[in-house]
Design brief:
single chain; Rossmann fold; 11 strands
């Protein structure tokens, strides 16, 4: 655990402290590995299944890296390749099969999906008990109601990173820029559950810098490179950059412009901030799903 940071602390003049997620991700992966090593004593090893229906290379790279991380953690894994011409029914059938497969604990429906498929219907087809990335609207609804559910891993990774650096959330003013169901909306609910005061901004927000400068904790999740600049940041604020925007040279850049580091008290880097924690959270969710499935089986027995 790192030394705690205080939201909206005084600016040091030395630039923002880097909130790397690498150490936290390593710790989470070690916890997953330990849980998996103990799993055979409980009857079986947790298993992850990923459904893909695209030939997008960046998506394929992500799936390969996720499967590799799962293997290193000792998780069983399966990738169901349906191809870029898969129909809504074909994808739904694959998800239905994974729901019925008792050896599978966690299911991810990888995006992008083929043009013309009913993305909403497919999200609803992800089995809720195995929905480790919070894709099914039922998961978001349960999250909003304060009930047990898998939050989208990226949203949960942001909370985990803030906790890792002991950044207090209770009473803090948090501003989330982005309202997607993948990050912005679920993250707002997670922050509310921790007693933060939350504002969600979006493309129709008037005078965005005026709103974001009120933040003790500012989270950029809009998917727009360099959207937030120094003028958007309150001096000393904690800034979490969720953006993962590809660059022409094959790298990644965030939603926060480099100049914001001169004003912020702390800033998560891209890459190396939220990203590695997201993958580690997904793997931890597989173990949790397996544990909960075992509990349900025990109750039925």
């Amino acid at each position: 655990m790192n030394a705690p940071l205080n939201p909206a602390g005084t600016e040091s003049g030395e630039g923002a402290r880097s909130l790397s997620g690498k150490a936290l991700a390593a710790s989470l992966r070690e916890g997953t590995r330990a849980a998996v090593e103990a799993a055979p004593e409980a009857g079986r090893v947790p298993k992850l299944a990923v459904v893909t229906a695209t030939d997008d290379e960046s998506s394929a790279w992500y799936v390969r890296s996720l499967v590799s991380a799962a293997g290193k953690s000792g998780l069983l894994h399966e990738v169901v390749h349906l191809g870029p011409r898969a129909s809504t029914e074909e994808v739904r059938d694959a998800l239905r099969g994974l729901d019925e497969d008792t050896s599978v604990d966690g299911v991810i429906l990888q995006t992008p999906l083929p043009a013309g498929v009913d993305a909403r219907a497919l999200a609803e087809a992800v089995p809720p008990a195995k929905d480790i990335d919070g894709a099914n609207p039922l998961s978001l609804g349960r999250l909003a109601a304060g009930l047990a559910a898998f939050a989208p891993a990226t949203a949960e990774a942001v909370i985990a990173l803030l906790d890792h650096y002991e950044i207090p959330l209770r009473g803090a003013r948090a501003v989330v820029v982005g309202r997607s169901t993948v990050v912005g909306k679920p993250l707002a609910h997670l922050l509310l559950a921790r007693d933060a005061t939350v504002t969600v901004c979006h493309s129709r927000t008037r005078d965005l810098p005026e709103v974001t400068r009120e933040a003790d904790i500012l989270i950029a999740a809009a998917g727009q490179p360099g959207l937030l600049t120094a003028e958007h940041v309150r001096p000393g604020a904690i800034v979490i950059d969720v953006g993962t925007n590809p660059t022409p040279d094959g790298g990644l850049t965030g939603d926060v412009a480099p100049g914001a580091a001169r004003v912020a008290g702390a800033l998560s880097p891209v890459p190396g901030g939220v990203g590695p924690v997201t993958t580690a959270v997904l793997l931890a969710h597989v173990v949790r799903a397996a544990r909960e499935a075992g509990i349900r089986e025990g109750l039925r027995g």
